[in-house]
Amino acid sequence: MIYEGQNLTVSLLDNGFAELVFDAKGSVNKFDRQTISDLDEATQAIAANSDVKGVVVRSAKPAFIVGADITEFTDMFAQPEEEVLAWVSKTSKVFDRFEDLPVPTVAAVNGFALGGGCEMALACDLRVVDTTASIGLPEVKLGLMPGFGGTVRLPRLIGSDNALEWMTTGKDRKGQQALNEGAVDAVVAPEKLTEAALSMVADAAAGKIDWQARRASKKAPLKLNSNEAMMSFSTAQAFVAAKAGKHYPAPHMMVETVKNASSLDRDGALALENQGFVKLAKTDAAKAQIGIFMADQLVKGKGKKLAKSATKAVKMNAVLGAGIMGGGIAYQSAVKGLPVVMKDINQPALDLGLSEAAKILNKGMQLGKVTPEKMAKTLNAITPSLEYSAIKDVDLVIEAVVENPKVKSIVLKETEQHVDDDTILCSNTSTISINQLAESLEKPERFCGMHFFNPVHRMPLVEIIRGEKTSDDTIAAVVATTLQMGKTPIVVNDCPGFLVNRVLFPYFAGFSKLVLDGADFVAVDKVMEKQFGWPMGPAYLLDVVGMDTADHAASVMADGIPERMAKVENDPVTLLFKEERLGQKNAKGFYNFSKDKRGKPKKDAAPEAYELIKPHQAEASEFSSEEIIARLMIPMANEAIRCLEEGIVASAAEADMALIYGLGFPPFRGGIFRYIETMGLANFVELADKYAHLGPIYQITDGVRQMAAEGKSYFA
After folding, report:
1. Which domain of life is it from (predicted)?
2. Nearest C-alpha neighbor of 707 from the set 634, 655, 641
3. Which CATH topology does 3-282 take?
4. Which residues on adjacent β-strands are paired with residue 320?
5. Strand partners, 489
6. What is the pLDDT at residue 243?
7. Are β-strands 601-605 and 591-595 bridged in parallel, bridged antiparallel, or unpaired?
8. Checking CA distances to 443, which of 194, 350, 524, 541 falls within 20 to 30 Å?
9. Cα separation of 204 and 105, whole Å?
10. Confidence band (pLDDT; 50, 70, 90) for 244?
11. Structural contact between residues 152 and 261, judged by C-beta atoms closer than 8 angstroms
């Protein structure tokens, strides 16, 4: 044994080649401080041993190295800038020292080699991967860039164009694609990996592979003339500007760093990478995106834990109520291998539900993502029926009929008479109280809410709503089924609107009040999309939701929380609804929807909408971007805080993920609570107090005022 650390070892084989084996105590290998320290000590031990003829780097786990330990980043990034720079500079030099070993090095990559894991492989002279491997640099998804030499070595290995595409998108590559692009040197079957790597290092040591030349090219400036450089980097800048926009600094920084480092050697290029990494580490976008990663891990961990505790296995679903929503839910069940009965009371609705599933699959086929076999298998897993007898053997029923408490209660009560005693019943309601619906059931303990978002196949979130009488076994089984259907479950407690819609409707109310105070809805949409970062502004979102749906839901919310959510007098949403301007569903709402000459959908601000609103509106006036954002976001933030304080949602992290996954909250802001924290609780309180005169939705709770005074955090 040449070296034995806590997370890796180096042993000398009989043929004179050393194996550096990553084998951390946990389930995966990752670069935490201890592992980096081990790597540095191992490198020094190898360099000091004259018997070593070459080194193979491999993992003893199912994955090579999954990346850096993100949990250590948050504490590190809170340090002063010079300390973060010293840390990343010191760490990246560990990889340099390994790269400079006086013998050839080969990485044997299995499973995932991501982030720091990919950078470890890049520091080797040669790379062989097995057919299970995925290799890539996904740091952009955390608002960061590679910090251990990735921006230096990858462009010199595969060219700046390919490298920037890898890094700015964060997409990993399977073995064959990585081989085609020149990032790896061979792809082999898993059982041949170690043997192939040892053979490769032996060939290198024997002079059959010029490993010194390969290493030298990684340490030299990029081989680009001035015209090539100009074309490459201007193309990359345009690509990033179009894809990422101004809110995500990381991909822009990567292009700038590779561009400015293109004429420098390794040491000069690494110094630029270190500086760029630190600048990004200090951005709000990085804090938000790292926060999302941590929150996502929390949500997934909770979901898996609950699913493991499930005592009932769900092998067949039923959806009651076909149409677009029911069809979407049925498709999602079937496409994930969970057979489903789709029941309705009339054939045209069943036809619509099946056509919705077929439409999603057809689009997948056009994009090359769905095979004819998969389409047939998915559609065959959906059984349409007009009879209750078809659902007698299902394990879980999802009611998705019209959003009317009387109709839902009748359907649920009828359903209970046609299924087994242990069949779970769920309601896909967006606002109606689960406790209220449970009153019609003989066994309310096996009933809960299962709120899907539209379009079902695209939206990752499912809100699981626990009623007062819902059993833990029911929740566990529904969470397990949600995961089986490929969705992210977040469990919340019952209240009007649950979590997502409860915080959305004060945002809509803030918008309506602002328009009535003289704001132009197009200007508001533009600010909320371009500056705040929502995928749609409020007027456009209301058109997509449908004015009938929004007006009905606002009435439900007003009945449930009248002290804050009483309907806005002369609400533009209601004015449009009464004139049957329903939004996209009939091509007229705040906007008129049509197709351009190429047949592509387009929207234009509707003169009719302005005319309807004008008699009820104050004199038209311009509002600053800051005021528009404040007047819409304070109500949403306040209601999210109330949901947390009332125990509707268990944590700020889960609330953040629910809004990101359910509403498209801008990821670079990290969710509603991360947005409040980035602003600073004291600053949020001060801003909300400035608008408190506008009504109860702007008035903060005593809880947040106290937290601000005590300097507390929602993420402590």
Report:
1. Bacteria
2. 641
3. 2-enoyl-CoA Hydratase; Chain A, domain 1 (3.90.226)
4. 343, 399
5. 462
6. 85
7. antiparallel
8. 350
9. 9
10. confident
11. yes
Tokens 């949500």 correspond to what residue?
Answer: 299
What is the Cα–Cα distance from 597 to 643, expressed in whole angstroms? 47
Give dist(CA 635, CA 629) in Å, integer: 10
Residue found by looking up tokens 């996209």 in the block: 584
Asked if the model's pLDDT at residue 74 lies above 90, the reply is no
φ and ψ at residue 533, rounded to 5 degrees: 105, 10
DSSP letters, 103-161, are S-EEEEE-SEEETHHHHHHHHSSEEEEETT-EEE--GGGGT----SSHHHHHHHHH-HH
Token pair belonging to 76: 């590190």
- CB atoms closer than 10 angstroms to residue 434: 25
Q: What CATH number does domain 501-647+680-710 carry, 1.10.1040.50, 3.40.50.970, 2.60.40.10, 1.10.287.130?
A: 1.10.1040.50
pLDDT at res. 597: 86
Mean pLDDT value of segment 355-367: 92
Nearest C-alpha neighbor of 575 from the set 557, 592, 601, 551 = 551
Name every residue whose Cβ is closer than 8 Å to that of residue 641 and which is 6 or more positions away in sequence. Answer: 676, 700, 701, 703, 704
Single-letter code of the amino acid located at 269 = A
Q: How high does pLDDT run on average in the chain?
A: 96
C-beta of residue 568 within 8 angstroms of C-beta of residue 587: no
**Phi first, then psi: what are they for 614, rounded to 5°?**
-50, -45
- pTM higher than 0.85: yes
Residue ranges covered by each domain of the chain: 3-282, 316-494, 501-647+680-710
- Reported as a single tens digit per residue, the pLDDT across 385-406 is 999 999 999 999 999 999 899 9
Residue owning tokens 């101004």:
246
Q: Let me know if 420 is exposed, middle or buried by CB neighbors in 10 A (0-12, 13-18, 19+).
A: exposed
Any idea which residue has 């990004």 for tokens? 280
Please provide the size of the chain in residues.
716
Give the CB-side neighbour count of residue 95, counting CA atoms within 13 A.
27
Q: Can you tell me the distance from the alpha carbon of 604 to that of 586, in angstroms, rounded to the nearest whole number?
A: 14
- Whether the link from the prior residue into 455 is cis, omega within 30° of 0, is yes
Quickly count: other Cβ atoms within 10 Å of residue 623's Cβ. 18
Q: Pick the catalytic residue: 247, 252, 418, 451?
A: 451
Q: Do domains 3-282 and 316-494 have the same CATH topology?
A: no
In sequence order, what are the residues at sequence separation of 6 or more whose Cβ sits closer than 8 angstroms to the Cβ of residue 354? 322, 327, 342, 379, 382, 384
